[in-house]
Amino acid sequence: MKPGHGEILLAEGDLEVREEEERLIEEFRRQLDEGMWAAVPTTHPGSGRREAQLIKAYGDIPAGADRVIFFPRASGG
Amino acid sequence: MLLALLALALIAVVLATPLIVRETGRRRARRRTEKAAAREGLDLPLYDPGRERRAEQRARELLRSCVNAEEWAMYRDLGFIRVGGKHTRRDADRSSVGPAYAYLIYAHKPIVAFVPGSGQLLSEYCVEFPDLTGSGGRHRLPASDDVLAKWMALTSDEDRVIGRANMHLVGRQLDPARIRRDLWRLAEWERRRKRRRQAPGRKQSARPTARGRLSDSE
């Protein structure tokens, strides 16, 4: 999510292809370095309700997640 | 005589050289500045009146794909989303059916905490997602992206986002009467939805439901 633009596709790729995964990792790190927060929408296994999982490292991305959403970090308004 | 004139001319040239060099440098710098200004002027993005609307449409689709169906319908029909709080203060709260407290998420407005059972308003949390791209904070997220960012932050790490927010008593930015009215609208909305679920065939034939595509509601 980018202020003034909304949703922007940053990178996409196949995790099975090494070059593409490296590109995804690089973009993931770049976004976090810029101060963005990353989250993955998931479904709670118990209640079945949708919720988000905050991702702090590339390795934290749940298996099967089809996207990671980056958004500006929250601050007091 | 000629020799004296040549000597004078040579001295004049030597004395004038620093002035000429300085003036040439100044002119070059001025030309560079003018070129850069002209280039910046050409690079200025043209105003696109549809950009914000398209961004909001994309944001609504993204929000719809992330939240629960009930939350999406709530946002589409009422303009806000309710998210339950995760903490409980007493054991009695744990045994109760719903959460002990909940939040109302509005677009570009503070998050409001309230008690679902009594409707008591607790506090408002001012939080924003500032532009980190260095454009001087001129831009903000589309409304639905702002709601989604708050939803993701609250459902993933409630303490983190609440810890960063500025907390105030309700009434600083939002009108308490309006929030109470929204809570009443929410209760009515839920009652209607419950009734519709109980008798879907009869209700659908009576009048169109609130369900539908995004384009239907805009």
Q: How does this structure look, described?
A:
The complex is a heterodimer of chains A (about 80) and B (about 220). Chain A is built from one helix and four strands. With about 80 residues, chain A is of the alpha+beta class. Chain A has a three-stranded antiparallel sheet, covered by helices on one side. With about 220 residues, chain B is α+β, with helices and mostly antiparallel strands. Chain B has a five-stranded antiparallel sheet with strand order 1-2-3-4-5, with helices on both faces. In chain B, helix 7 (about 175-200) crosses helix 8 (about 200-205). Chain B starts with a helix and ends with a helix. The model of chain B is unreliable at about 205-218 (pLDDT under 50). Chains A and B meet through strand 1, strand 2, strand 3 and strand 4 of A and helix 2, strand 4, helix 5 and helix 6 of B.
List the helices and strands and how they pair.
The complex is a heterodimer of chains A (77) and B (218).
Chain A: H1 18-33, E1 36-43, E2 50-55, E3 69-72, E4 75-76
Antiparallel strand pairs in A: 1-2, 1-3
Chain B: H1 2-43, H2 51-66, H3 69-78, E1 81-84, H4 91-95, E2 102-105, E3 111-114, E4 121-128, H5 143-156, H6 158-164, E5 166-168, H7 176-198, H8 200-206, H9 214-217
Antiparallel strand pairs in B: 1-2, 2-3, 3-4, 4-5
Helix pairs in contact in B: 2-5, 5-6, 7-8
